[in-house]
């Protein structure tokens, strides 16, 4: 009984800081961006940009209330909007837009 309580207590902890570099799939170079969270703020997704002077900088792409999954990260890098339901296409999409 005591061990179960200790494990339950340990599982109740929350992360106060998170940082991870993002790479292209299957590589360790080049860095494409980073994810950062500092409690109590949201998760922030950054994109790495090379400057002509040879330096690099990170620009914020998006924020998330919870840790983003790989699909959310990829969509943010591709510029796809979040949380939109799949809309009907073709003739049904046209008719539902009119009605």
From TrEMBL:
Signal peptide: none annotated. PANTHER family: ADENYLATE KINASE, DOMAIN PROTEIN, PUTATIVE (DUF1995)-RELATED. This is DUF1995 domain-containing protein. Residues 3-74 form the DUF1995 domain. It comes from Liquidambar formosana. InterPro entries: Chloroplast_ADK, DUF1995. It comes from the Eukaryota. It holds the Pfam family DUF1995.
